[in-house]
Design goal:
The protein is an alpha/beta fold. The protein has eight helices and seven strands; from the N terminus they run H-H-H-E-H-E-H-E-H-E-H-E-H-E-E. It has two domains: 34 residues, no CATH class; 150 residues, Rossmann fold. Helix 4 links the parallel strand 1 and strand 2. The chain is globular and about 90 Å long.
Length: 203
């Protein structure tokens, strides 16, 4: 092998070494992701459609939450509505979530009392009364209607509920009172074209 060829190979090897050295910090960060909590975690929950952040903010705003309010989130999922609640400085937040995987993620949160339960099995006698309820309930088999009607039982007189509901179901929940706003394509990013209603009800 000629001197020029050996020199060329050495230059290529040195260049590859420099490139690897520049990438080493990135590899070090990746290698520690399970230890530092930045690795993605698989979460399994039947019918889970996370509330888009912008919609979560609109929903929470509709509940007119005041600092110090006691707030219930009956279908907490992975906590999108809990994120939107934080700037309002509620006095106490109670979250209910049935999925073990989702509940495992929510246990990491501070300032949230969590129950891993089917919300329909929880009674007002267990949790008490709330100033506000914010919720994105499951939609399958008209579950949204049942969850919203059940959530109304947890409100103090004058308490406010803001919820998402399938467009075709909201009249069953309103029963002549409350406000509603149609939001087409709200969950397009989650892979569904279902049209939803943002309901606002007062006890």
């Amino acid at each position: 092998m000629s001197f020029h060829r050996l020199h060329s190979l050495r230059m290529e090897n040195d260049a590859a070494g420099y490139a690897m050295q520049e990438m080493r910090p990135r590899f070090d960060r990746i290698s520690g992701r399970h230890e530092n909590g930045t690795a993605p975690r698989a979460v399994s929950a039947h019918g889970l459609f996370q509330t888009p952040p912008e919609l979560a903010e609109r929903l929470v705003a509709a509940a007119a939450i005041q600092p110090g309010d006691r707030v219930l989130e009956p279908s907490a999922g992975l906590g999108r509505l809990l994120d939107a609640l934080a700037p309002y400085r509620p006095g106490e937040v109670v979250a209910v979530e049935m999925s073990p995987d989702c509940a495992r993620e929510l246990y990491r949160r501070e300032g949230v009392r969590l129950l891993q339960r089917d919300f329909l099995s929880v009674s007002p006698g267990e949790l008490g009364a709330f100033d506000a309820v914010v919720m994105n309930p499951p939609f399958h088999m008209r579950a949204d209607v049942h969850h919203i009607q059940h959530a109304m039982k947890f409100l103090r007189p004058g308490g406010r509920l803001a919820a998402l509901c399938m467009d075709t179901h909201h009249r069953e929940v309103l029963r002549g009172s409350g406000l509603w706003e149609r939001i087409p394509g709200a969950f397009k990013a989650a892979g569904t074209s279902v049209s939803v209603i943002l309901l606002t009800l007062t006890a």
